[in-house]
Amino acid sequence: MLFSALSLFAQGEQIFRGACAKVGSKVVLNDAGGKATYELDQQKKAKRYVGYYVVVTGSLDQATGMIHVDSIVPALTPKITQAKSVFIYCDACPRGMAKAKPAALDALLDWNRFAVLSNPSNADLVFIFSANPYAGDYVTRDGPDPRPVNVDITYMNVVDPQTGQNLWGSSRQWGSLFVAKATRDLIRELRVQLEEQSSGAQKSLPAKNRSHGTSSGVGKFPP
Fold it and tell me: Which of 75, 95, 148, 209 has its CA 20 to 30 A from that of 50?
């Protein structure tokens, strides 16, 4: 799990990245080895993110090791930030949806961040484009999505090709005539988030005054 304190503001605010997990009845932010945790004072706000990678903005009470939380938002997982290659898959893409794959290829070549592979088994990530929400069955389903296709919303999901886990997802309800534009915009959204997170990581500060304990839960990105 990714853990870092990223920036220090004049008011003492910091940005922390990590995974929310439960320790007993409490929700905490923990590091990769589970050897250090920060308690979170906004327990109700934090509960919905248990098991997810998050970005927490707040101030650290150095005496108690508790973060006084201002905000919690989802973060990109290391599986995405460390990926080098992708496979583009257009799932049940008739009519206007057929434009998604070539548009995605153009956008990725322009980005020049990932190698685009022809074999999904060799790729770090699979970018799935579809007119239906991701059902979480990339690994288990044999063949195209059998659900009816109404080309109204363009969905993009970033999936782990080994497990089928949804690591990131977004959509655009722009209709069948704008599938290519929607596809490029979805990739742009991921690109901005990835570049912002990478930029923040370069400014990371060493975490101090951590409280110690054990924790459970696997970091993931909310679907």
Answer: 209
Neighbouring CB atoms inside 10 A of 163's CB total 12
- Residue 203 lies inside a defined structural domain of this protein: no
* Whether residues 157 and 134 fall in one domain: yes
User: How far is residue 84 from each of residues 26, 91, 108, 165, measured CA to CA in Å?
Assistant: 36, 22, 12, 18
What domain range includes position 62?
4-76
Question: Helices marked H in the chain — which ranges?
Answer: 43-47, 78-81, 100-111, 179-202
Helix axes 100-111, 179-202, angle to 10 degrees: 30
> pLDDT digit string (tens) for 164-177?
998 988 899 999 99
Residue 110, in any domain of the structure: yes
Distance (Å, whole) CA 2 – CA 219: 9
Q: What is the dihedral of CA 36, 39, 44, 46, to 10 degrees?
A: -40
Are the C-beta atoms of 3 and 21 separated by less than 8 Å? Answer: no
* CA proximity to 7, closest of 206, 173, 210: 206
Query: Model confidence over 74-94: pLDDT tens digits?
Result: 788 889 999 999 999 999 899
The answer to whether the pTM exceeds 0.70 is: no
Encode burial over 91-123: b for 16+ CB neighbours within 10 A, e otherwise: bebeebbebbbebbeebbeeeeebeebeeeeeb
Q: Are residues 26 and 130 in the same domain?
A: no
